[in-house]
Specification:
Length: 274
Amino acid sequence: MGVLQNFKVNYSLFLCLYIFFASVAGDGVSNNSTIAARQRELISQVRTQVSGLDDILSTDQSLQRYLKLTNYNVQTAASKIKQTAEWRRSKNIDNLILDDVSLLSVTLPYECTGKTADGNPVFYIPLGKWNFRKVQRDRQNARLQNYLTQLFEFNLRTAAKSVNPRTQEPVKSSVFIIDLQGLSIRQLLSGWGRSARAVYQALRTYEAHYPNTVKSWYVIRAPRNFRMMWFFLKRFVPADVVSTVKIYSRWSIRWRSELKSAIPKESLPKELYL
């Protein structure tokens, strides 16, 4: 495979993950601790402008996520929350998450493997095993966006039910491990391109309706080109987002010690037992 073709494939993959990081990284609550008093007034102002929210949107932590998304602009935050509430109603989100995507769950696996010491859910996505070619062969591309939305909703609901065992404060963010081991260039060429539009649309949904729900990202065993592109493009990503993303190449062993220090062994995926 030519260098240019290899670059294009890695770039398309990187672009989707770049959008993902730029839109969802950061938990909006420093260390999941009690919300600072100076921010409570802003949260109260937002709450007075919205009504009829379901429980998962009406908490202080949820309202603060939208405040952070809008650089703490009360009116804009309230507007975006209303848009999300309307989107959830129009999508009938409670029924959407019951949609049968069993075929995709095998083809594009992920799992919640446990929690950090602070109670943050840990999600493991072996992206290198995601077979987009099989998605096309099984004619599941039309359900791909729903499948990814289910992942986003599962993340939101899992975090919403969690508490920090040390402070008993609610947890509103998760830790994601993205494993690129086994990433097949041939597989990406044959399947990724056809699925890219659905993936892109799903990530835009996350940007609009699931902001700031990920505390930190560990991208491990990444191709060399991926790391090079991140080095140049991260300058266009907000500094607070960059600080949540850690990328390790296939030849690095540092990710092992990083994961061991951040996540209890029992919460690591079996594939990564260290």
